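note to self: dont lose this again. the chain is below, predicted strucutre after it. 315 aa total, dont forget to put it in the shared folder this time
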Amino acid sequence: MSRKIFTIMTAAIISASLVACNGNNNKENNIVTEESTKINIVASINPLRDFAEAIGGDKVEVSILVPEGVEAHDYEPKARDIEKLAGADIFVYNGAGMESWLDQVLQTVANKKDLIKIDSSVGVNLLNTEGEEHHHEDGEEEDHNHGEFDPHIWLSLIEAKQQSLNIKEALIGIDQENKAYYEENYQDFIGKLDDLYGEYKEKFDTISNKYFITGHEAFGYLCRDFNLIQKAITGLRAEGEPTPQALKELVHLAEENNIKVVFTEEQAAPEVSKTIAREVGAKVEALYSIEVREEGMTYLEMMELNLERIYNALK
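---
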């Protein structure tokens, strides 16, 4: 075991013990605070935080484990993060290989028996790296560190409903008394997802050009929802640079399909997008991967902006 991991695990065990002791002391002394009456949810990444807040409403306190501005694949758990998790009632993570550090974290908090762990990818029709589908069933063994599946589930309005369902069921499981409240919030939220999907499904069905170029290969699920085709400058993890041949093919694709907008995202360096745009006389616009909150916008606001920008570029 490396010194780094040993230090994290030692600090985490101490933190978990302190949290447990404090919790027990509060119960023994009948200390009830406004904060303690709310369900403490830790979400691994931003979109799951948005889903949990939409469904949990004023019954929950939600925070994220991966700090804002840090790419989830590159995140390294700190002792304070493990302490936060040790004090949670529910930990909801994306799954599908998004959190490469997940096994390490779950092992560190394994002694916290009452922590409810929710894999939000359960029930989702996952896309593997070849674009084929796989339905992730509850209870199915999963290697959390593999890179077999496209993890960007939340960029599908359809699969976001399933992720939200998993969160709703967890909340009801821990708080039966407020079941109707969570059901109502869930129905309201998925109604908004359905409305947004219906609006843009109708729009995208009217256009013949289905190709768009983007910074990294994050929009496979969105493309499946709307029968679109992404051509990405970099892969699922936004790593590396395209080869000269790949760059040439992207320029050819843009020219052949009269592409006038080349997209980039916060994880991908915009230089290559700008280079392609200059070659074909196009402009560069941003899409949101929604892994972080941008300009205080909600998940629904960012998704709507993504869809509108893609639609305007294709029509």
